[in-house]
Amino acid sequence: MRTMLKRPTDDDTDLAGFLLFKKLTDEELNRLNFEKSCSSYRKGTIVYREGSRLTGFYCVTRGIIKIFKTGIDGKEQIIRFAKRGEIIAYRSLLSQELACTTAKVIEEAVLCHVPYQTLLYLIQNNWQFAHHMLQIVCRELREANDYITDIAQKSVRERLAEVLLLLKENFELDHQNTLQISLTREELANMVGTATESVIRLLSEFRQDNLIELQGRKIKFLNISGLRKVAGL
C-alpha cells in the first residue's frame, strides 16, 4: 500500500525565514509568495535530471535533497546535500544552461518552486538580493575549488575524515553525538570520490581507532579532534 504524502503545511510554504529573502520588501515578498508553488516529494523522487531545462529554482523547506553528477560509467559523484533553508538549481538557471546536476529526495521533502521570471525580477529590483545570490554562487565555487585541491593532495583516509566533519557541520549531531543524516556506504564513497569497499574498510579503521561508532547507517562521533587530525585540518 502506497503511503499518502502529506499536504505542505503553512510552515512548509513560508519562505520568509530564508536568509536569501530577508531583504525583500513587502511587495517583493508578496510577489514571491504569489508566484511560487510548493509540493511534497516522496523519498527517492527525482526533482530534476542532469541535462533537463529548468524553469525555476527550488527552496527546500523540509527534508534532504541529494545533488549529484553522473559519470560515464553511471557512477554518482555527490556534489552536496541541501536541507531546510537552502536553495537548489539556481546556478544553471542563472547561466541559462541545461541542469548540470541531478537532484534526488533522500528524506521526504517539501520544495517550493520559484519561476525564473520571479528570480529575474528580484535580481533587477533588489541589489541586496542580487548580492546575496552572488555570495551563494561564490561559496559554491570555493567549495568546488577546495574539493579539487583535496582530490589532488589528500589521501582517501584524509578525505573521508573531512567529509564526516563536513556532514557534522551541515547536519549537526543529536544529544548522543550521532550524525543527523543517514547515508549508505556507497553515498559516502561517492562524496569522497573512491570505491565503496575503501569506505567500508576505512570506517572500520576509524571505529577501531575509537574515532567513531557505527550503528548501521548511523555514525556516532567519539573523537572529533582526532578526526580533524586525520583530515589534516
CATH architecture of the largest domain: Sandwich
The tally of beta strands, per DSSP, is 8
Query: Class of the largest domain, according to the CATH hierarchy?
Result: Mainly Beta
**For this structure, what is the CATH homologous superfamily of the largest domain?**
Jelly Rolls
- Please mark out the parts with pLDDT under 50 across 5 or more consecutive residues, or reply none: none
Description:
With 233 residues, the protein is an alpha+beta fold. The chain has 2 domains: 19-151, Jelly Rolls (Sandwich); 155-231, Arc Repressor Mutant, subunit A, CATH 1.10.10.10. Helix content is 42%, strand content 23%. The protein is built from 8 helices and 8 strands, in the order αβββββαβαααααββα. The chain has helices at residues 26-35, 90-95, 116-125, 127-153, 156-171, 185-192, 196-208, 224-231; strands at residues 37-41, 46-48, 56-70, 76-82, 87-88, 102-115, 212-215, 218-221. The strands form 2 sheets. Strands 1, 2, 3, 4, 5 and 6 form a 6-stranded antiparallel sheet that branches. A hairpin with a 2-residue loop joins strand 7 and strand 8 (218-221). Helix 5 crosses helix 6. The longest helix has 27 residues, at 127-153. The chain is globular and about 55 Å long. The model has no long low-confidence stretch (mean pLDDT 89).
List the helices and strands and how they pair.
Layout: H1 26-35, E1 37-41, E2 46-48, E3 56-70, E4 76-82, E5 87-88, H2 90-95, E6 102-115, H3 116-125, H4 127-153, H5 156-171, H6 185-192, H7 196-208, E7 212-215, E8 218-221, H8 224-231
Antiparallel strand pairs: 1-6, 2-6, 3-4, 3-5, 3-6, 7-8
Helix pairs in contact: 3-4, 5-6, 5-8, 6-7
